[in-house]
Write a structure and sequence with these properties.
mainly alpha; signal; single chain; about 210 residues; about 60% helix; 7 helices
């Protein structure tokens, strides 16, 4: 029974340890920098140590000859000691390995130091830099239909002209109605009315 309790306790302890997430140094650097007053000595020191971390990762094995890394790393050692901003315990976990790999000191400066200047921004690897090659642009759509041959244009024009001539000839050859004598237009309606009146009178007379 005791061994079972011991086993359960060991499992719970292991689970609680595995549940603890170790924060990435760069994420920690960004989080801590947001808490500082921009332009203050603490802000510049946090930023300097954070940029040294970034450049150390970006440069890889070439960090030891990278001026951005070496400048920020040296300034971080200057300002991060216990008698200054006292943040080496936060950044040292990531920076000490870089410093040892380059044969640099991993001990912050002692005694009160002058504030460090603003950090030099880290330069990312070439693969993550924005490409200077302009993106291909889409050319405006153009018509690919070839122009009609000049011969066909003349043929069409000639054909149209021939049709027009034929239509004109047809219209002019059609016989026209004989002209109406003057006054007939006024006479014909009156004559028709008179015929109707005459027919009505004739029908009435027969009914009587």
């Amino acid at each position: 029974m005791v061994s079972m309790r011991f086993f359960v306790g060991a499992v719970l302890a292991a689970a609680s340890v595995s549940a603890v997430t170790i924060e990435d140094p760069l994420e920690m650097a960004s989080r801590l920098l947001k808490r500082q007053e921009p332009g203050s000595p603490a802000y510049n020191c946090h930023d300097t140590c954070g940029q040294a971390l970034r450049q150390g990762r970006f440069s890889g094995d070439a960090r030891c000859s990278n001026d951005v890394f070496k400048t920020n790393y040296g300034n971080c050692l200057k300002c991060a000691g216990p008698e200054n901003v006292n943040i080496w315990s936060m950044y040292g976990r990531g920076l000490e390995a870089f410093g040892r790999g380059c044969g640099l000191s991993t001990t912050p400066a002692s005694g009160k130091q002058d504030p460090v200047p603003p950090a030099i921004p880290a330069v990312g690897p070439a693969g993550s830099a924005q490409s200077s090659t302009p993106a291909p642009t889409t050319a405006p759509a153009t018509s690919t239909r070839p122009p009609a041959p000049s011969g066909s244009v003349r043929s069409t024009s000639s054909s149209s002209g021939g049709n027009s001539s034929t239509a004109a000839a047809t219209s002019t050859s059609r016989p026209s109605s004989p002209p109406v004598p003057a006054g007939a237009a006024d006479f014909l309606p009156n004559a028709g009315m008179a015929a109707l009146v005459y027919a009505a009178v004739f029908a009435a007379a027969h009914m009587l």
